[in-house]
Amino acid sequence: MNWQMLTAIGQLATVFIGVPSIIYFAIQLREQNRERRQAALNALTVQWGDLTKALHENPEFSALYLRGVHSFHDLDAVSKLRFSAFQNRFFKNFEGMYYSRREGILTSERWD
User: Fold this and answer.
1) CA-closest candidate to residue 96, choices 45, 57, 55, 62
2) CA distance readout (Å), 12 to 3, 23, 25, 49
3) Is the CB of residue 62 less than 8 Å from the CB of residue 55?
4) Cα(96)–Cα(91) distance, rounded to whole angstroms?
5) If you average pLDDT over residues 51-57, what whole number do you get?
6) What digits encode the pLDDT tens for the residues 10-34?
7) What single DSSP character describes residue 94?
8) Which single residue of 35, 38, 94, 106 could bond 100 by disulfide (Cβ 3.0 to 4.6 Å)?
């Protein structure tokens, strides 16, 4: 065996080992991206559920929310604080949805 033949065998072995490794890596990367998108969607869903739970499980807060929507200035100081805190969480949730949409985590079929 001469050096050219050994080089050819080495290159052939590299092809047989390297190409399947690259394909395997691409498949793993695609699956990881899919899992990341699903985890982000699940987190947004949980956050949205926690947010709306305050409205449907607490009649007192639901009434406060409606009063705040109609006239924020008529609320007392504590009610303004509670309403503002809820609105902050509400808009942060939508901000998360917006950035997830912009980054491609939320796709059109999940967003619409």
Assistant:
1) 45
2) 14, 17, 20, 56
3) yes
4) 9
5) 86
6) 888 887 888 888 899 999 999 998 8
7) H
8) 106
